[in-house]
Every structure is written in C-alpha cells, then in structure tokens.
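Example 391.
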Amino acid sequence: MEACMNVEREADKVLGKFHGVWNHAERTFDEMIENLASRQEELSKSPCDDQFNLFHNHLLLSSIKRVREITTRLSNEHKDIHSSVSKVGKSIDKNFVSELIDLNQDPTYGNEDRMKLLNTVVFEHFLRQGMLDIAENLSQEANLDVPESAKEPFVEINRILAALKERNLEPALQWALNHRDQLRAQNSSLEFKLHRLRFIELVRLGPEKQYEALFYARNFSQFAGAHEKELQVLMGSFLYIRQGLEVSPYARLLDPINWLDICDVFTQDACALLGLSIESPLTVGVSAGAIALPALQKIKQVMQQRQCHVMWTAKDELPIEVELEPSQRYHSIFACPILRQQASENNPPMRLACGHAISRDSLNKLINGSKIKCPYCPVESSPNDAKQLHL
Ligand SMILES: [Zn+2]
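Predicted structure in complex with zinc ion:
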C-alpha cells in the first residue's frame, strides 16, 4: 500500500505540473495570436508601397523575437514535464518488485497453444464486458478463429443487459419466454422478477395505468405457487395506486436496487444456461493471482536466503496453500490435510468411519496393526471401513 502511495504522489506531481503548463500554454498562445493579429492589422493599414519602412521592419523583427522566446519557454516547460513523467517510472521501479517472472518456473505461456488459450480468455472477457469491437480486433490479431456462433450468446446477453440498465424489460422478458422450460428446470425466478418489476412500474405511474396494471397482474397466475408471499405484497401495493406508491408502506418496492438485482439475476441465469461461469475467468484468475502473489514472493525470498535454488518441483502445484475466496474456487479438488498433497487417481481421498477424509497414502501410513486412529477426532476404526470419495 505504501508503495502505491509513493507512486501516486509522483503521479499527482506530474498531473499538477501538467495542468499548470497546459493552462499557461493555452493563455500564452491566445495572447500570442492576439498580438500577432493586431500587428498584422497595423501592417495592413499602412499604405501599400511594396516597401517596408523602418517601423515595419522593427515591428516584424520584434514579433519574431517574441514568438521565438515564447516557443523556447514552452518547449522547456514541456521538457520539464517529461522529466517528471520519467520520475514516475523510476518510482514504480523503486517501489515495486518487477522480477515476478521467475516466480513461475514453468514457461506458462511458452508455447503457441497456451498463448492462444490466454488470448481466448482475454477475448471472452472483452465479449462479456460488451467490448465487442476490441474483442473482434484481438481475435483477428491473434488469429483466434472464433466461429460467429460462439460470439452470439455474449452479444445477446450484452444487448439485454444494456436494455435492463435503461429500465427496458422487453428484451429480457422475451428471452425469458424463449427459454422458459430451461429456466424452470434450474429453478430460476427471472421471469417472475421481470413481471414483478413491470407491474411495480405500472403501479408507480398512477391511476392512469390502473387497468393496465390489473390486466398485467394476470401474468402472475403461473407463479402463484412459488411466489405467494411476494404476490400478496404486490397486490397490496396496488391499493395505493391513487395515493402514490412512494408515500405508501410499499415504497421499498421502488428501491433502485431492484433494477441492479435483476441485472445480476439475468446474468447468473443466462450464464448458467449457456454453461458459462458467472464471473469472467480472467477476472477470477487475476484476482486470485493477486492474492497468491505476495505469499509466493515471500516464500521465494526465504528460499533464496536459505539458498534453496529449486523453488518447487511438483508441476501444476504451488509450494504453499493459498486461501482463496469461496467464489474463486472452481474445481472440486481434495488436498490431503496430512500429507498436504492434492489427491490423484493413485492417491484418492478416503472417508474414515468417523466421517473425516484423508488421502489413501496418509491412511496407509497411519495404519497401526488392524486399526487406524483418525488424526482429527481421534476415533479408532478399521481401515477396511474407509471408503473412497469421488469428487
Ligand atoms: Zn475422525
């Protein structure tokens, strides 16, 4: 954090200087142009005899001299900004360790296939963010060769999300209708929530929309079972259509958070339907990496101090456990709490009779005669009662 502050201080200095120089330059240019214009006028007023008299000569020479002075001064100020900018660079070098590359011994992006994989992840991230033109450029430059059909779902999701942000429910409702069966199969409340927002909107608009709201309420019949309580609230709010929803006990229905919520619900359901993760893999990867990096850096320093030159040998495995947020955990993996190894086909997780799980290798090591003592509880049981777990 302190490193960030140090760099920020330098960056602020540059910004301050830049604004100062910018304002000064603008003012100077205006003055200079004004000055030259007035001199031009003076010159044009004098009788045209194709001959410059001494006065004209003096006028021109002094103008040229002044312009030269000003441009020299401005270019000096410009140079000064450059030196401040380079100070920011130096400050970054000083405050941040740039040698992160050797934290990774395996050349992660060393071959073409892996590079392509990385580019594809970045490409998908742009699509998810709705930056379609940037994604398109990247795909061309990196020869990703992505079929049109792969882009369509993202384009559609972004179009619907953009409409929802404008409080236009139509595209989302249409989408929910088209995917009704699949959405129901995954217990989605998207369609109900969309109708609910539309109804609240009609009630908000007052008595003028009274009949429309009443008519619209018919859409709720299919949700009577699953959303009974919420429907009661909505019907209750209808009583206040004349008085105004905002001054009624149902004012919370107008909370703008409902519109943010619907965007989240839509994204979640649409991603689930398309078999995509809700968060972009790039975002998750980068934030998980940012959590892991300080610990890895520390362990690298310790290993260097103790002169251990081999950092870690196991491929695809970190030398320490990194605690990530639950939202950043993707694959069901089992790391043995005793041997601190990731379970594999040859060393699968085993559930002891007491319910605790350890890897098979640990189990074999802990067997004492015909008994095994659980390292956790510690209940004794027979190793034969241990069952393999399948994740
Ligand atoms: Zn146990």
